[in-house]
From TrEMBL:
Compartment(s) where it occurs, according to its Swiss-Prot or TrEMBL record: Cell membrane
PANTHER family: SENSOR HISTIDINE KINASE ARSS, SENSOR HISTIDINE KINASE CPXA
Lineage: Bacteria, Bacillati, Bacillota, Bacilli, Bacillales
Protein's UniProt keywords contain Ribosomal protein: no
Name the record gives this protein: Signal transduction histidine-protein kinase ArlS
Keywords, sorted A to Z: ATP-binding, Cell membrane, Kinase, Membrane, Nucleotide-binding, Phosphoprotein, Transferase, Transmembrane, Transmembrane helix, Two-component regulatory system
Transmembrane segments: 21-40, 161-189
GO molecular function: protein histidine kinase activity
């Protein structure tokens, strides 16, 4: 049994399906056949029994209707009517009280023993199954027995015929259900085979080939394939993004490393004895190292992508005031004002994320400004959102560069921005953090006038 279980468990899904559907159809068919066979058998056998009863009753009432004075000789001579009562395949015998046969109508079977009286019994006479009815009769002074023998050959051949027909139909049903099961399983497995070969392609060749499984049906498999397509496309996108990210990151990190390397070799050749070169090289190397550290920290922040915490909440005014005083300490020349007209509820974002976003935007506003930085922050509540507006009087951004400023490592003026310490990651981190909390960020800018960032963050309650 365990071997059979193990064999079945190792079969392909297609064969499992075929065997199971065939077995279910076959067993249902077998049960229906058994019920039909047994009911028909009982019903037909009862019918045969009632025929015997009818014949024996008819004969007894015929003989009794002849009156008490009828003699055995008269009965023996006048068997015409008795012949018409008895079926052709039945044998009827009249015995006297000593069991000696004195009349016989039809001779289809040998006499049966005169045992059970007044009841119909099934027995084998002359190797044939028969129904036997023994009935005592009294005609005037004559006392004897009537014996009706009813052969069951007709009934048996009918039942055998039925059984053969059922068996043939059963084998037919088994073959038919097997082939239908096989065809169906094949049909249903086809998309799964396609899924498997697509997975194999991804395993062998990675995401180099586009993944598109064509299956249009709206059933469970269609749903599964649709999900697989969507999942693989997402994976493909994130895989490409990751490749791009690694390429960009190594490219970005190469620049400070090259600068440090350059300065160190300069030092090695001439700088040891020249205090001016020594001083400058050490300063530049330290600046490059600081930039590298900042970039690595930001890269880690981007790579971390923690799940959003449902318990997150932040008081926007408290957070903004904290960041503003931090900025004022670092950049005392900057003038930052905060205004809020409405009572703002709690925001659905962590304080850490909100301060990081505010810090990035404010740092940019101060960094990309050639005048005395003037930054106006206003906060208002609309429906279920808080709207933050951060406007500066900086250098502004060209219209053609504006769509890309949230991309990783994108800097409007690469050489210049590197010089003033930009990594090109600040805004992409802010956007990533905002998207995590279903918030959004937009920007409007005018060259030499200033830039305005619009941030919308959902309220917690
Ligand atoms: P970075 O670290 O270089 O500042 P960001 O992702 O924060 O990177 O910004 C991307 C680019 O967008 C910056 O390099 C800069 O050119 C431009 N930018 C961002 N904010 C401002 C601003 N307030 N005014 C002008 N340019 C800006």
């Amino acid at each position: 049994m365990n071997k059979l279980k193990a064999y079945f468990a190792n079969l392909s899904l297609q064969r499992k399906w075929m065997f199971t559907s065939s077995a279910v159809i076959f067993f249902s068919y077998a049960i229906i056949c058994m019920v039909v066979y047994i009911s028909l058998h009982t019903w037909l056998l009862n019918d045969e029994e009632s025929k015997v009863k009818r014949t024996s009753d008819d004969i007894v009432s015929f003989l009794e209707s002849q009156g008490p004075n009828i003699t055995i000789q008269q009965i023996q001579q006048n068997t015409g009517l008795l012949n018409s009562i008895v079926d052709r395949n039945q044998s009827v015998r009249l015995f006297n009280i000593d069991g000696i046969e004195i009349l016989r109508i039809n001779d289809t079977s040998q006499a049966a023993p005169l045992t059970a009286m007044r009841e119909i019994v099934q027995m084998t006479v002359d190797k044939k199954d028969v129904f036997v009815a023994n009935e005592p009769v009294r005609l005037g002074f004559f006392q004897g027995y009537i014996q009706v023998i009813h052969p069951l050959t007709g009934f048996e051949s009918l039942m055998n015929y039925l059984l053969t027909a059922m068996l043939i139909a059963g084998v037919g049903a088994l073959l038919l259900s097997g082939s239908i099961g096989f065809y169906l399983a094949n049909y249903l497995m086809k998309p799964l085979h396609a899924l498997r070969s697509s997975m194999k392609t991804v395993m062998d060749k990675g995401f180099n080939e586009p993944i598109q499984l064509a299956y249009t049906s709206q059933d469970e498999i269609g749903d599964l394939l649709k999900m697989y397509n969507a999942m693989m496309n997402e994976l493909q996108i994130s895989f490409t993004q990751q490749q791009q990210f690694v390429a960009d990151a190594s490219h970005e990190l190469r620049t400070p490393i090259q600068a440090i390397e350059g300065h160190l070799s300069l030092l090695k050749r001439w700088g040891k004895d020249d205090p001016a070169i020594l001083e400058e090289s050490i300063d530049t190397s330290l600046t490059e190292i600081a930039r590298m550290r900042k970039m690595i920290e930001e890269l880690l922040e981007l790579a971390r992508r923690e799940e959003k915490d449902d318990m997150s909440e932040a008081d926007v005014i408290v957070v903004l005031e904290g960041v503003i005083s931090e900025m004022e300490l670092l950049h005392p020349q900057a003038r930052i004002t905060l205004s809020n007209n409405d009572e703002i509820g709690t925001l659905f974002i962590t304080e850490n994320a909100l301060s990081q976003i505010a810090r990035n935007i404010l740092e940019n506003a101060i960094r990309y400004c050639e005048k005395v930085p003037e930054i106006k922050i206003s906060v208002s509540a609309h429906d279920q959102e808080a709207h933050l507006q951060i406007a500066d009087n900086g250098i502004g951004i060209d219209e053609e560069n504006l769509p890309y400023i949230f991309d990783r490592f994108y800097r409007v003026d690469e050489a210049r921005n590197r010089q003033i310490g930009g990594t090109g990651l600040g805004l992409s981190i802010s956007k990533m953090l905002l998207e995590k909390y279903n918030a959004s960020i937009e920007v409007k800018s005018e060259k030499n006038v200033g830039t305005v960032f619009f941030v919308k963050i959902p309220l917690k309650y």
